[in-house]
């Protein structure tokens, strides 16, 4: 069994003069949760659609489960599930009938329907038509619909879109459970970068159709490292105290702020030393550079991620 | 292909649009027989050449009598059925599973064919029954072998309608939108249906109009021996229309990007 689930090499998609995807290369191994990060129009959905064969590519190669070529990819796609942007459902049908349709599309039995309805917490919807569902319920049904064909590879575009905070947590747990229990590999995108950081094992940052950075969870943690944020009205006095404590890895970020990158567990001791030296501390605590800030650093500018 | 048809069956059985279409096909003959009864009641005699259906036997010509209505109902049904798959994004569910686009297109065409068949069958049976009850079964003038005539006429009329359904399927897949598909299908129906009447007045364009199946449907008398002799020609034009429109539709759909 091939360990590489997806291998996209130099994939480009051009609309007129605009390159929606510009030589994007991504490789996904089995068991990965790959988070695609990018602003609106960065090419996340376009990339996902090319993988699913909904959009043709102008350049490059796509390999799925080790299969390439038109026929090979067509067969490999039977092992995939997808939910792109808005949940694609039949509004006039019930949840059960929607799953029956997708089971028929995939040529699989309807045995799993009850289990999936329970798994997604929508078993009680009965004869209620999908058009009367909340967005959160539709999102859950869309995920259930992708699972009916028992896929090995899931593509989820904004799966937490429209969910309330508890729904987001629940969705995160469901995705993690699917990865651990069924060994499903997941490619997902989200606008909620901090949310994505709690679930993905690998990240790809797309900007204007280009993959500007690819990194693992560990690498991202290093890049967005933790530090002690100190706010004081007497920065110069505070610096002297830090030097006396033997702390050298710090940075004065502005007239009232210092970031300390070492001895992160010593916040209480540092605070006591500052107070004893009559340094007026207005705020002290550990914090982390936000994923959004890191993203902005990479893409260089304001964004609506 | 069979899997896609199974999916279509589940969707159709729950579709209100399907039952509305069948209701129109079933009720129209009853309204028409009531209308004909009133006409006769007020002293006007029914004439086959103009009224088309005047008794149970001529009820086989219900498709000729209601050609435009049937086409509009089918056009609306196909426009919504295909357009909503694009609008709701549900087309992605099947295609992203590696289902062949050709099979997907053909499954929609098969469903359109079945709907047309069941619809016109319902209408014809209801027409024959209701006109038989009110005016008696009677006969079709100058037709010696009625059953053979009935079978040939039904098949020919069905294929004439089916060829138009095939055009509607093609338009729906190309436009990817219910409203736009409805507008173009309606324009096609009106243009080839009523435009033909104008072009048939000229010697040069008369022949061209017979490459469009609606010219046969709207401008032939299916109980007249002269037009009955044209049945093979009608079938050939219908089959060519189905093959050409489906080929164009499939080729363009296979190249299309699905949003």
Structure notes:
- The complex is a heterodimer of chains A (305) and B (259).
- With 305 residues, chain A is an alpha/beta fold.
- Chain A folds into two domains: 4-222, P-loop containing nucleotide triphosphate hydrolases (Rossmann fold, 3-Layer(aba) Sandwich); 226-288, Alpha-Beta Plaits (2-Layer Sandwich).
- Chain A is 35% helix and 28% strand.
- Chain A has helices spanning 44-51, 70-76, 95-106, 113-119, 135-147, 165-182, 193-197, 217-223, 235-244, 267-276, 291-299, and strands at residues 4-15, 18-29, 33-37, 59-64, 80-83, 153-157, 185-189, 202-207, 210-216, 226-232, 250-254, 257-260, 281-288.
- Chain A has a six-stranded mixed beta sheet, sandwiched between helices.
- Chain A is elongated, with a radius of gyration of 24 Å.
- The relative contact order of chain A is 0.14.
- The mean pLDDT of chain A is 85.
- In chain B, 79% of the residues lie in helices and 0% in strands.
- Chain B has 259 residues and is mostly helical.
- Chain B has one domain.
- The A-B interface holds A 49, 52-56, 73-78, 80, 82, 84-86, 88-93, 97, 100-102, 104-107, 145, 149, 155 and B 3-4, 6-7, 10-11, 14-16, 88-90, 92-100, 255, 257-259.
Q: Can I get a quick summary?
A:
The complex is a heterodimer of chains A (305) and B (259). By secondary structure, chain A is of the alpha/beta class. Helix content of chain A is 35%, strand content 28%.
Write the SSE topology:
The complex is a heterodimer of chains A (305) and B (259).
Chain A: E1 4-15, E2 18-29, E3 33-37, H1 44-51, E4 59-64, H2 70-76, E5 80-83, H3 95-106, H4 113-119, H5 135-147, E6 153-157, H6 165-182, E7 185-189, H7 193-197, E8 202-207, E9 210-216, H8 217-223, E10 226-232, H9 235-244, E11 250-254, E12 257-260, H10 267-276, E13 281-288, H11 291-299
Parallel strand pairs in A: 3-7, 3-8, 5-6, 6-7
Antiparallel strand pairs in A: 1-2, 1-4, 8-9, 10-12, 10-13, 11-12
Helix pairs in contact in A: 3-5, 4-5
Chain B: H1 2-13, H2 16-41, H3 48-51, H4 62-65, H5 67-88, H6 90-95, H7 101-135, H8 146-175, H9 178-199, H10 203-209, H11 213-219, H12 225-228, H13 231-255
Helix pairs in contact in B: 1-7, 2-5, 2-7, 5-7, 5-8, 5-9, 7-8, 7-13, 8-9, 8-11, 8-13, 9-11
